[in-house]
Amino acid sequence: DAGVTQSPTHLIKTRGQQVTLRCSPKSGHDTVSWYQQALGQGPQFIFQYYEEEERQRGNFPDRFSGHQFPNYSSELNVNALLLGDSALYLCASSLASERWNEQFFGPGTRLTVL
Amino acid sequence: SQQGEEDPQALSIQEGENATMNCSYKTSINNLQWYRQNSGRGLVHLILIRSNEREKHSGRLRVTLDTSKKSSSLLITASRAADTASYFCASRSGGSYIPTFGRGTSLIVHP
User: Fold this and answer.
1) Residues of chain B with a CB closer than 8 angstroms to some CB in chain A
2) Which fold has domain B4-110?
3) Given an 8 Å threshold on Cβ–Cβ distance, is A48 in contact with B33?
């Protein structure tokens, strides 16, 4: 039973560029959430996708956008990268019908913006 | 904003000792989860405790929840060097689908 997978593992970009991160949810899960974790901080919620639509969004600018595909996998896009976007980006999946909303996390993508 | 705050920020102990970490939160919750994160990796789910539960056990882990004090604690008994990691609490409240994380406790267990 495959858990949550993310790609790539590491990524180095320069300011102003655009980046796309990918996530495949745990088998049987239909909901994907994205988090940004700066060094020494807890994960900060970016947005959540369910049924291919953004269901809830955190306090992130419009430069952060996402998409969910019919197979429940998801992408996170960040445009016009800033140095402050350097962080570990975590994807978590869950099952919408599961009352207690237990989330399972992937290993993360480490993004460095130079 | 962060709903939960862990205390202490950092904890250093010897192998075999017990480690206790605390989490406080601000608003009423539906459930609270504890996660472990090894050095820059993904988060591993440890325990979920529901708002109507007071205590849960999983192996060497014991979690308590005091909704009157809006706090939770994670106890790791007989710690091992492999327990070295950051530990986060995440609470979910109201109609939100999203757990809100604290800043974490960094635990170092010396062999």
Assistant:
1) 1-2, 30-31, 33, 35, 40-45, 48, 50, 88, 92, 96-104
2) Immunoglobulin-like (2.60.40)
3) no
Instruction: For A78-87, write each residue's pLDDT tens digit.
Output: 999 999 999 9
Give the gap in angstroms from C-alpha B39 to the nearest C-alpha of chain A. 10
Q: What are the domain boundaries of chain B?
A: 4-110
Q: Tell me: the pLDDT tens digits for B70-92?
A: 999 999 999 999 999 999 999 88
Residue B41 with chain A: CB contacts under 8 Å: 107-108
Domain A5-113, CATH class in plain words: mainly beta
User: DSSP E strands: which ranges in chain B?
Assistant: 4-7, 10-14, 19-25, 31-37, 43-50, 55-58, 61-66, 71-76, 85-92, 100-101, 105-110
